[in-house]
Structure of Phospholipid-transporting ATPase:
Amino acid sequence: MAAPHQYHQPNAPDDSDSDLELDLDELDPIAASSSAAPPSRRQSKEKRRPYHELGARIPLRNLRVGRLRASPRPQEAEDEDLRGLMEDSEGANRNSAGSYGQSGDDDAPLLPSHNVRRRHQRAPNTLSRLQSSLRLPSFLSGSGQNTPAIQLGEHPDGESDAEEEHDPTSQRTISVGQLQTARFPPNAVSNAKYTPWSFLPRTLYNEFSFFINMYFLLVALSQIIPALRIGYLSTYIAPLAFVISVTLGKEALDDIARRRRDAEANSEGYTVLKFEENSVGNGVAPGKSSDRKRRAKKRRNGGRLTDIEDEEAAVSTTKGLSTANFWEVVKPSRSLKVGDVVKLGKDQRVPADMVILKSYSQDSTPPVSAKSGAGDNSPTLVDGETNAPDVPFDNPAKNNSSAGAGASGEAFIRTDQLDGETDWKLRLTSPLTQNLNVGEYTRLRVIAGKPDKKVNEFYGTVELQPKRQRNYDPHEEEESSTAQEQSAPLSIDNTVWANTVLASSCNVLAVVVYTGPQTRQALSTSPSRSKTGLLEYEINALTKFLCVFTLTLSFVLVAMAKFRVIEGREWYVSMFRFLILFSTIVPVGLRVNLDMGKTVYAWFIEHDQSIAGTVVRTSTIPEDLGRIEYLLSDKTGTLTQNEMEMKKIHVGTVSYAGEAMDEVSSYVRQCFSTPAGEAPSLFTPSSAYVAPSTSATRTRREIGSRVRDVVLALALCHNVTPTTEEENGEMVTAYQASSPDEIAIVRWTEMVGLKLFQRDRESMTLQSCETGNVVVRVRILNVFPFTSEGKRMGIVVKFYHGPQSSPSDEDGEIWFYQKGADTVMTTIVAANDWLDEETANMAREGLRTLVVGRKKLSAQTYQDFSTKHAQASLALHNRDNALADVVKEYLEHDLELLGVTGVEDKLQKDVKPSLELLRNAGIKIWMLTGDKVETARCVAVSSKLVSRGQYVHTISKMKRKDLAHDSLDFLRGKTDACLLIDGESLALMLTHYREQFISIAVLLPAVVACRCSPTQKADVAKLIREYTKKRVCCIGDGGNDVSMIQAADVGVGIVGKEGRQASLAADFSIEQFCYLVKLLVWHGRNSYKRSAKLSQFVIHRGLIISICQTVYSIASSLEPKALYRDWLLVGYSTVYTMAPVFSLVLDRDVDESVANLYPELYAELKSGRSLSYKSFFIWVLVSIYQGSMIQGLSQLLVGVGDGSGDATFMRMVSVSFTVLVMNELIMVAMEVTTWHWIMAVSIVGTAGIYFGSVPFLGGYFDLTYFSSLAFWWKFAVVASVSLVPPYAGKILGRTLRPPSYRKVRGV
């Protein structure tokens, strides 16, 4: 097992002779020491340095050291001169904060001039000086000021970009808190698809890649040629321009909305430290100019300067003057630059990839610098306490804060938005930067590698440059020449990546290393792409057929004319004119209708109150929601809430869950209560179990004893640290640990009555929740942390015993506690007959099981173990194995089995019924997560992704190709199994057996992939899309899901707790997973069905008028003359038919309740029958029939005429065009399944508009004939022949083969 976890080092015990001899330099939190300070700086009054030694430093610092204000003793003459010089300066330059300012100019006199106003003040006493020394800087306080400060320097914001762009393929050297020598990309998040200059080229390319648009572009351009011109030029150009404008406008609005959302994320404010280097060579601090600027900043902001600045102005923490002054400003996320030092607080999102420099607790701020070599930076001088082991423990709250994360350079972060893992990660600061005064940060240089997408890897170095001295004295110059550059390595443990969240109750100072597109998050994210719906591709294919049909028709007509010259035109010119006349067969208005339909669907989705908060970010693909066949889901935050709760505990003979936990509480209360009249004493595992007289049965005593043992074991065996936080004005205890499981268990022990009160590296204290007394105290001897290989966690503790007021750990009991996965603990615990059965029962419920055991160690056994363990830890080869062998030999065998715990990862609301309904709808569900195999298995079971009794085939840590082949062969013969595979094995499969693996995996009902990187998730989505050609939907909530979401045909993002990266990058944003069901089964189904019906009607509308034109051309000697000209042609496809046809977007075949009750209705859509070649050809035949009947009968009943202007021709046009319009309106009414009032209004209203416009159509119609009886009976006959047969055929088809929706409606 790994080496024991290192907790915070306590302060070393104070062995000084007398506390009265404290030097104020030591008390001052700023003037603690430099990194090269000697081990002890405490000096007695007799050992203080003579004045001539200090004299060399007069120009270099503003002296405020207490010893200089002591009563003068006899000294040499030069000492007297120096004292006079200092005291004079002191009186002249004393400022309001108790620090001293001096001139900032090199030629300024050392002594003040006569015209300086003196401010006489009473000399401060020792106590006030002590308070001044211990004043805490506001920069390090929990409530830092967020007011922006005056920017110093020539540039308006104090910064200027370097001219040279940094090469991203090379390593970078970063000057902390300063301007960089190279320029790095801005720290801006961008989910936009287009830039202002790429918008038109890309959108126009996308539009004209559709055949229908290219076809109409060529038709429109043909009108420039005089021989091919038919009617007005605008007749052909205007519709195309309108279509393109609508589509481009929608794309532009979508992208503008994305940019606005990005701007919100990029404007989030962060506290940044601004540094101003003290002037080099002037030897004074701060200079007159900088002092004036600081005062001006104070006046402008209406507040006082931070205490730390006044302290820094007066006293240096290292020899000489502090390198830089600093103050806080608030910067938006997009303005953060490489090298900026950012201050982060609890639950704050990390805006860029950073390296941690310093960590400190919020409730008790540490000194600005700490003594070099001290492992702890806890504020002992402020609290008046020390962390020595012999502190009286009856009130450990006093020294509790020093054990909080951050006191020794530790911080926990949540990375579930980056890699999907639920466990918190421990991050550490480098000792070189943790113990460094913040004013010296400008001396730091961070060397980092080139930007990389590997989130678990980082190699770098931090260097501390030698201090630049202001040399006024030759002795100082000699001394400074010996200073050397210091460096320390940096690893992944010292980093926080963008979009992780600081989880622990501490503040962190971190320097920005990578920004914007160079962060790990951005490099793992695929670029945005324009998505096109499957329906559009299908319609594109159909329009190609229509174009071929048009070409064939034109050629046939020319051939029927025997390729003769007509009106001086060659046959090929006549053929092109026919092509233009028949251009309405390929309907240019189809794209407009569909695009406007998509807008309506998006409006329906966003205004559905049952899925409130849903946002449609890509409005071009709502129909694809109705065609999903594969759903790829993230786990953490999507299916689960990432909130753990202890649900069940089994102690061998009895199991407790739910309300039965009250019984556990009563046992704990009895066990840890002191009998009346006795002094409170500490409990150990061997303490007698005191059973109340009411439960005298032996069984209850045994059970009570077992419950006490298992609760005590769970309260001690963990890596959790308690911290105190203020919430709503009340102090509450919060817990910090790398695993949420451990926190859930510790919360449960608190709930049943045993609270973790205090924890540091050496000891742990438990408190009774009922009495508030400390009941258990242990000394921590060894900790064996959890590893993914070991799957267990152990701790060796020594119990204190005796009265609570004077405990002792001499001859204390030593116990080894361990908890872990049942797979490894089965062989470690003593033989039993119930463990396997109980763990299997809990696993079936989807609970995460942990087996708890213990073992008592004699003092001799522990001594032997400790010796062997120490020897093994020094081994140069196979150290981990050697340590594990020692632990196994002495500790990990024959443990007493105490119990089994079951922890539940709370599922999101209604996840189980949602997954079941989606499965019944024919959707295959894959779960892709970055979490552990065991965790993924539990969630797959608890969420019912894997049905009860279904076989789960697990492939993990596979490294050999032959084993992969065997697994594939097994799955090929068992396609009803669920596949559980980890990232390593998945990579092997995709590398060597890509085709075979995906061909089998897509057949399985469920696949769970764990330990997946963001790139792997995206690769899986692309692979399924490419192999199956089916629609893939990906849903996630974290930044690690963005690549997968963008790779999918339909990306759905959930607005997560930790951020909105996924929802911003997605096509559809929802607030809960269960909303997905309605989005797909209701809105997706309706969108697809409506668009399919709409597109068929638009094609029918264009085809029928072209058939009329064909029949007329045949009757008019095969000449390419127009039947309907100009306004009739434009009005037919717009004013006279558009509203009724478009109203079909309001139609629905079933109600929402029926759609949810019969998810199989959704499964039908996968076949695409609503818009198939079969349905298309049926509509083509109907169009040919109706067009032939309308035009043929009109010509038969009225006559053909000689063309434009002829009375017979105008009468024939009056009949055929009127029947054509009314035919279309009645066909719409025949297709409606569920009437909406807008549909009725649009049909009746359009008919009224048409007949109302007839008086204005005298140029096309014979108006006198229009009002005659002959017109109306001919109109009725033609319309009847056109409409009755198709309607009869439809009724017959419904009767013989009723569609599914009619079956479930019972119609």
